[in-house]
Structure formats: C-alpha cells, structure tokens
User: Fold this.
Amino acid sequence: MATRTKTSKSAAAAYKLANLPVDGRTRVVIERVTPELDGGRFPIKAVPGDTIPVEADIFLDGHDKLAARLLVKHADDPDWTEVPMVFINNDRWGAAFSVEKPGLYSYTFEAWVDHIASWQHEVSLKVAAGQRITSELKAGAVFADGMAEKAEGDDKPTLEWVAGLFREGAEEYNEIQYNEAIRVAQSEQFTDLLNRYPERQHASRFGRELIIDVDRPKAGFSTWYCLFPRSASQEPGRHGTFRDVEKLLPRIEAMGFDVLYLPPIHPIGQAFRKGKNNNVMSEPGEPGVPYGIGSELGGHTAIHPELGTLDDFKHLIAIAKNHGMEVAMDLAIQVSPDHPWAKDHPEWFKKRPDGTIQYAENPPKKYQDIYPVYFETDDWQSLWIEMKETMLTWASWGVRIIRVDNPHTKPFQFWEWLISEVKKVYPDLIFLAEAFTKPKVMQQLAKRGFAQSYTYFTWRNNKRELEEYMTELTQTEMKSYYRPNFWPTTHDINPYILQSGHEPQFLIRYLLAATLSSNYGIYGPSFELMEHLPFPGKEEYIDSEKYEIRHWDWNRTNRLTYLIGLVNRLRRENPALQTTNNLTFCRIDDDALMGYLKVTGNNRLLMVINTDAYNRRAAMIQVPTWQLGIADDQEYTVFDLLTGAYYTWKGQWNYVELDPYLLPMHLLKIEV
Assistant:
C-alpha cells in the first residue's frame, strides 16, 4: 500500500469544509496581555526614554518548555525588534522595552514550543538519574545542526563543533567526548546559543498588534503658568497687550515655568456681554468675558485688537521660545451671538421653539453671552472640518500646545478624529483636557487622544484622599494612558480649602502639586499672591479676572514665590520629579504626615509633607530600604534640598517632624 506524502487538492478542500484551523500544530496560548486598553482599541501613552513593561499569560499543553518573544517596532521601522520574555510565575511572562523617539510604536507577542529547551531539560533529568543518553545526544546533534544553519559570526563554527561533539559523545566507549558532551549540553553557553537561534516551528502569534503613542517629552514633564494678557499691563487702568506679556517673560522664566498658557485671545462679542462678577448687564467700558468668543472682527482665527495684531502674537511666541517657554492657547468651542458662525452657519446651533438660538446653560448658571455649538447638527461634517482648519491655523502660527475648555461637553469621536487629523500634519501638538466631570468621561477623553488631563487633585485634600487618588492614577490601568496635570487653583475654581488665605495651606497645596505630578500648573499672579476671597457661597473668586481687567503687582514677592522658583529648579535638576508613575508611598502612623518615594536611576528622593496646615506633626517614617538596596543596619545621609540641612538616618524607621508655619515639607535626597 502506497504511503501518502502530500495532501491532494480535494483533501485540502475537504479539510477547509471541516472548519479545521490554518495550522493545528500550534500549541501555545497567549492571553491577558497588559497593558492592553479595551482589547487594543486605544493606544497607551509614553514619551521618549520611557521603559514599557509588558506581561502576558503564555502556556501550552503537556510538559514541554516554551519560548516567548515580545515584538516591537516604530511605525518608521521596516522590521520588528525581538525582546526575549522571561517567566515570572503561574504561566505569567514579562519583558520590557524602551521607546526612543516620538511617533507610533506597535507591539505584539509570539511564542512556540521550545523543543531544544525541552530536550535540554530532559537531558538534565536523565543525567541526574544516572541514565546514559546516547540517543538524546544524537537528537541534540540534529538540533545543533539546525542552529548552525541560522548562526552568524563565531557562533556558526561553535555550533558546528557542538554538533560534532554530540555525535562523538553518542558513540560507544567514547567516555571523554561523552562527558564533555553532557557538560556542554547543560551549560549556560549552550542555553545562550539556543536562545539566540531558536527552533521556531508552529509559532503562536498574539491576535492583535497593540499601539503606543509616544509624544514629545513636554507631554510627560511640563510646568504651566496661566495669565490673562489683558491684565499684563503694569500701568493701572490700561488694557494689557502681547508686548506687555513679553516684558513679564524674564520674571516667569526666572520662576522656572516652561509653558505660558493664555485664556482665549480672540475678539469678544458685545451682545449680552457680562459685567463684573458675572453681572448679566455690563457697564460701558467693561471688557467682557474672553470665552464669549467672536465679533464683527472675526472668530476663532482672529486676534482681539486691544491685545495686538497677529504679528504681535507670533512675536510673543518667538520671544517666549527664547526664554525657554511655549505658548499654549485655549480652545473653547462656543461663540458669542456676534461670532461670524452665528450668522454664516446658524445650522450649527440649537434652536428654541420660537426659532431663536439656545444660549449656554449649566443650571442654575446661565451664560446668555455664549452659544454652545450643536454637534448633532445635520451639517456636522462641515463643523468638524472647520474645527480642524482652526487648529491647523493656530499651529501655523507656531502654537504646539492647546488647552481645551470643557471637552467633555463635545462628542468623544469628534476629539479622536480631530486630534488624529491635526497630528498627522503637526505630530508635536499636545492637547490638554480641561474636564472636571465624571471619572469615566475624563478617562475616555484621555483614551481618545488627549496627552494631558486635568484631575480631581484640586479637591483631594487630606492624606487618605491623596494616597487613594495617587494610587489610582499610578498603580491601575490609568497609568498607561492618563497623564495628570495638577492645578491647586484655576481661574474658574477657588477651592474651599484655600478660601481662608492661610499661607501654610497655599504652600502645602503647591508642594503637593509640584512633587506628586510631573505636570502641574498655577493660575499665575492670583495663586502667587494667594488671592483667596470667594464669591459668597461658591468655589469662585470675587472680582474674577474672567469678567474684568485686573492690575497685579508684578514686582511683589513672598515666601510662596520664592518656593515656586526653588522647587521648579529642583524639578529640572532631579529626574525623579520628572515622572509621575515612579511613586511609592511610605508608612507613617499619623493621619496628616504623608511620605512618598520617587526614584529614577540613581536619583532617589523622599518627600515628607504635613497636610495639617495648622499644627506641628511628628512621627516615625518607614523608608523602603529594600527598594533602595540599603541594609537594615546601614547608615545613610538624607539631604533636604529645600533647606540645605543634612540628616544621618539608619535602617527603615526614622524620625520626622514638620511645622507648617516654618516649612510643611522635607524634600530629601537619599545618598548612600
């Protein structure tokens, strides 16, 4: 009877009808990959230099050994780079890789039955049991032959020699070669060779290629300063200009900020213009709200003439760059009734039954000076394209950072499309989501493309709240895609905790923001000068700068301004403060004293802060010496970067004491 060596076409067709797999000889399963956002629907985020740890459950039937590789490549690279994966426990495998340049990276996994490693394991077991393995050495020679065919450089003759040794060792009465073959078969050198030249047959490939969106470094580490250009004049009663802002740049640079964020700089409408303190009727000469965008002078691509010209704005961008700063613009997708869109595209706005356009409301608040854009309009395509052209126009001016006002009130798929389309032309653009809303909505915006996000930090005030929130941001899936940007206050929010004007409270909130998060910002002169008087019963400012021009004493300094300059310098000098997710909380048996460790390479910083702004606190802190390579009986030095003081500590438990009226924080550099 003849032996059938090839599958006939009719048999192949029959197998297909039988719904057989493409290759039934694959035996490895790859599942439960991390990080993997929503089944690979969204990319994770990184900046150049980040190390990305990945894990997966990888296993097979039976008792054979397996090999697994992480495959990585940048969108510009033609080939995959392979990273060997290592066994962790319980069929969990892991690896890590670094991303070196902006753009999109892909990663996936491949694993297969490692017949050579299985052979090596079998050899070790039989040798340990005193069995003679001549047959196994012959099989090993075949494996070595296959490895030699793929080998390069000096590895090729080495493997050819190994194959010959295995054959010689398998010969009867050749004890010297046999013992040498046994030694080589179990050696680390041979293990290294089989890892370099594996027998990769019937490999299983993970079903998806996952994406990493690598932004430029500024997305991961930035320090924001917000000011209203119209309040930049140092002459009381005069409307500020871009040229006035330029005069402030040396001061802002000296304080260590690298992003200058400006609220809307466009023409402001006259219709229903708001007055001081959100008065529904404005008095003659009142400037209106910058968020009431648009007049007969233009809309989102026009410049408010009292601030200067477009050339003046471009000049500000260029001068700011000379001072190490980028200018961030504010995108508010809403219009004054005087905006050209209200006349040219009335279909972009929601109508009342009487045919008038519905103004903005956030009950019980009413914003009669603003029309919200209606994203369910039948002409939504034209609206989307208009917004894209607006962003491209801003980018052509030199803007590379955009803070988006209330993005959670616009469709998610709009943001995903807009950010993706604009970054095709300007890949270095960074979008910040100013969204204070429900957690899942904020998270979805980050997944859809926002590089940075506002947070609940403003309302996380005590030790328990802060530790729980930071653990969520840095230890859950959020760490892979949600980049927090911490703001103690904003021009919209005067939080209750700061309304007393108590100086230690301002210091505490600032120090927390600047050391917990690698991205943070302050509402400029208002925060510096510890402005705190509220609109009665609200988390808003009385005499808010949103509704009137303010005159600030730009020459005034205090303890907070000094501390801001010092801490920003320390942030630049210490890589551990340039990352958010490198956070470890330390045990302190006190409900107000909070300690946290941040380590990047050899830069090891320990922050201890008293969150009680009114009382001195003292306790013992447990330093995670096991994480730092410090023995329990070893002495080491901690150097307070804020005060210059040195302390000699020993082992895990050490004494700390902080008086908020003196300084509420130790910022300790650990030196061994």
